[in-house]
Specification:
By secondary structure, the chain is an alpha/beta fold. It has three domains: 19-75; 76-193 and 357-409, D-Maltodextrin-Binding Protein, domain 2 (3-Layer(aba) Sandwich), CATH 3.40.190.10; 195-350 and 425-492, Periplasmic binding protein-like II (D-Maltodextrin-Binding Protein, domain 2), CATH 3.40.190. Helix content is 45%, strand content 12%. It has 21 helices and 14 strands. Strand 4 and strand 5 form a beta hairpin. The longest helix has 21 residues, at 27-47. It is globular, with a radius of gyration of 25 Å.
Length: 498
């Protein structure tokens, strides 16, 4: 190096690329200097967000990755991957996850550092975007919500060349949800779908042999059971609880209401904005009637766990939720243990549908350890690990064949319902078709529906205003919903599913 002034690129080239030099350079001072440079870079990144909520987490995570720096591991040093996931962080799940990662290390010699993340999905998405925007080499593997691939696709490698066999064995709807423009952004890690929980003891008490098959039946049954339980002194008992707060959970619920009536997917797969139609409007109006009648007035502020808490306390006859609620409902100290079951959500005129949820694992295109990261994704998403995870955590697997195993179905009889739901009753949110605009689309949709639930706007007005806002956000044309729907039809319901 000539002179005393040189660029950071020169230092990086010498240190990181390991070009042969004519002299022996002491490594410890260089490593210290590289660390100092990286700290300066990180501080500059942090100053870009002087008042932003994500500045702290982004800087802390980047600083935590500094030991990796530019230095390449020696022949004898094992690779350490970093994994950033968005899964629920209960004690049981955390312990099971650590066991999975430890077993992966025993089998491969590759170490994994699990990184902490914000709790809410909205904060997680902002955190993911901030990290990816720095182009840092870590995290190596990211957990992606099923609705994120369209928004973040460009930051991850295409997994299709590595996992073609695995994807051909997945539920088709699950596989499609992680594919954007023929690029496989993430490999399915677990799967979720909207379901109806119902109290078996109360149905028997009030003379019902099967759970409600249609939304009309749900309304009548919920009202009758609610009235009967309140007459016995349970003044806080409600017929039906669900997620009514203006968050992503409401988009999931409302999409189920309208799609089951033939009201479309909000925005169709051919980029047609279809939300302003009579079927969707009637579905919103019906849900608004529930508020204060069979559902508590406060349901318009309920998130997932608010509904689960009311349900597990024994204060509701029916609940719309995800498969994960089964574990808390069946806990040893649950008042409703062995007193409930699950089924597909009720049908409208077009059929029965549940909104698809779940998480996939993606490999950052900035990772310095792509091959090792692919090994981790392959391991965590494998049939063997999913089977064990289902046994320990009751998490639904993503492979149809696993639902047929007696060893899995016997202790989890509800898996028969889940398998049917994933095969025949899936509705996906319009995240792939709207890409980076999905967050604005879902925000506009949930606010419109929420305004109807609270009585702030009439459904006709809210749908018309929403349509104009979606045109502004996406530039797509307007039109009617698609004729076909992936959910089961009303004619197919020959009997109860439980």
């Amino acid at each position: 190096m000539k002179g005393s002034l040189f660029s950071f690129a020169t230092v990086s080239s010498i240190i990181c690329e390991g070009r042969p030099q004519a002299v022996i350079i002491p490594m410890e001072p260089i490593r210290s200097f590289v660390t100092l440079i990286h700290r300066v870079v990180v501080r500059r990144i942090c100053r870009l967000y002087p008042s932003g909520k994500m500045a702290g987490p982004v800087c802390v995570l980047l600083l935590s990755l500094l030991p990796q720096g530019c230095a390449r591991p020696t022949v004898h040093e094992p690779v350490t991957l970093t994994l950033l996931d968005q899964e629920w962080t209960t004690k049981t799940f955390s312990e099971a996850r650590q066991q999975e990662l430890q077993q992966f290390t025993r089998e491969t010699g590759i170490h994994v550092k699990l990184l902490a993340s914000p709790e809410s999905p909205r904060e997680q998405l902002a955190f993911w975007r901030e990290l990816l925007g720095t182009s840092a080499s870590g995290p190596d593997v990211y957990g992606l919500d099923v609705i994120w691939p369209g928004m973040l696709a460009e930051s991850f490698i295409d997994l299709k060349p590595y996992f073609a066999n695995e994807m051909s064995a997945e539920f088709p709807a699950v596989a499609a949800s992680y594919t954007v423009d023929n690029k496989l952004v993430a490999l399915p890690y677990d799967a979720n779908i909207g379901l109806l929980y119902f109290r078996t003891d109360l149905l028997r008490r009030y003379g019902y042999r099967v759970p409600p098959q249609t939304w009309d039946e749900l309304e009548r049954m919920a009202a009758r059971i609610q009235a009967g339980e309140r007459a016995k002194g349970k003044k806080e008992f409600w017929g039906f609880v669900w997620q009514g707060a203006a968050v992503e959970g409401l988009t999931c619920d409302a999409l189920e209401w309208q799609a089951s009536e033939g009201g479309g997917r909000i925005i169709e797969e051919d980029k047609t904005i279809s939300v302003n139609n009579p079927q969707a409007i009637r579905a919103w109006q019906r849900a608004a009637r529930w508020v204060g009648s069979i559902s508590p007035p406060s349901v318009v502020g309920y998130k997932e766990w608010d509904a689960v808490n009311v349900w597990v306390a024994g204060d509701a006859a029916f609940m719309r939720s995800w498969p994960m609620a089964y574990v808390d409902s069946q806990a040893t100290d649950s008042p409703i243990r062995n007193k409930f079951d699950i089924t597909l959500l009720p049908a409208g005129k077009a059929g029965r549908v549940g909104t698809l949820g779940g998480v996939g694992l993606a490999v950052s295109r900035f990772s310095a350890h792509t091959n090792e990261a692919l090994e981790l994704v392959r391991y965590l998403c494998s049939r063997k690990v999913q089977l064990e995870r289902s046994r320990v955590l009751s998490e639904p697997p993503t492979f149809p064949e696993l639902y047929e195993l007696a060893g899995l179905r016997e202790p989890n009889p509800r898996y028969a319902v889940l398998a049917q739901a994933f095969r025949t009753a899936v509705i996906s949110r319009p995240s792939s078709v709207t890409g980076k605009n999905y967050q604005d689309v879902t925000d506009a949709y949930m606010q419109a529906v929420h305004s109807v639930l609270t009585g702030e706007k009439r459904a006709l007005e809210a749908a018309a205003t929403l349509e104009k806002e979606l045109v502004r956000i996406t530039g797509f044309k307007t039109g009617p919903p698609s004729a076909g729907m992936s959910g089961t039809t009303v004619k197919e319901r020959s009997g109860p599913v439980h």
